[in-house]
Design brief:
Layout (H helix, E strand, L loop, with lengths): L1 E4 L4 E4 L4 H21 L2 E7 L5 H12 L5 E7 L4 H9 L2 E6 L8 H8 L9 E5 L16 E7 L6 H4 L1 H5 L3 E5 L4 H4 L3 H11 L4 E4 L8 H7 L6
Parallel strand pairs: 3-6, 3-7, 4-5, 4-6, 7-8, 8-9
Antiparallel strand pairs: 1-2
Helix pairs in contact: 1-4, 2-3
The structure holds guanosine-5'-triphosphate (GTP) and magnesium ion.
The site of guanosine-5'-triphosphate has 18 residues, from helix 2.
Length: 225
Amino acid sequence: MKISFPSTNETFDLELSENMLAANNQLAAENRRFFDSRGIFAIDILGSVGSGKTTLVQQFVRRLKDKKKVASIAGDLATTIDADRIRTAGGEVLQVNTGSLCHLDAAIISRAMSGLNLDGLDVLLIENVGNLICPGEFRLGAHCRLVVVSVTEGPYMIVKHPAVFLDADAVAVNKTDLAGVMEVDPERLKRDALSLKPGLKTALVSAKTGEGVDELMRLMEIPGA
Ligand SMILES: Nc1nc2c(ncn2[C@@H]2O[C@H](COP(=O)(O)OP(=O)(O)OP(=O)(O)O)[C@@H](O)[C@H]2O)c(=O)[nH]1
Ligand SMILES: [Mg+2]
């Protein structure tokens, strides 16, 4: 990992625990093989605290539940609030409380599988712990990594957190219903994402009103979308 000091033009390498990440990557690959063997399409949903991940999961579940078997894993430091909210939309939900751990990892997902009824499961929605930093490095084995960024976080979230967007497959620019009052241009956030990673699947959505959610789901190629 490179740490830089732009004002003095200095850069140095910080050694990460490469073994830990390598072990996680190996487990993530095992998770992927497991998902594939059962025909499960898994989605890892990242975003800052309050960006709208749970609200978006609720929208996904409502749209899919009559066509596909959907289950969700809600990752949070504490409480079952998100799982309870998702349950109101439908499908099976498992809450994972990580305590002080700021991200889910492949081992947690592997263990969570034994707490879900996997018979005939088509789509697994995994809401990661809210923040745009630590979840980025820990692959879960999902087929699609969606990053949710909302206009209420201001105009610079994407340029300030390039790593997580470079590793994403899709980006939802959320809370577009509040763009006017926030004076943040959602199209600019979309352009920032695309200039970091051309070809990124990017949609402007309001998880609250549902606007743009169908298009996002089609872009992500979620079965049943
Ligand atoms: N106006 C508006 N509010 C939204 C939208 N999406 C989510 N919210 C609201 O934003 C707040 C946070 O939404 P959540 O879905 O709980 O966000 P989250 O990313 O799951 O938050 P954590 O799990 O705590 O990280 C809630 O009050 C939602 O109702 C949106 O598109 N528009
Ligand atoms: Mg949530």
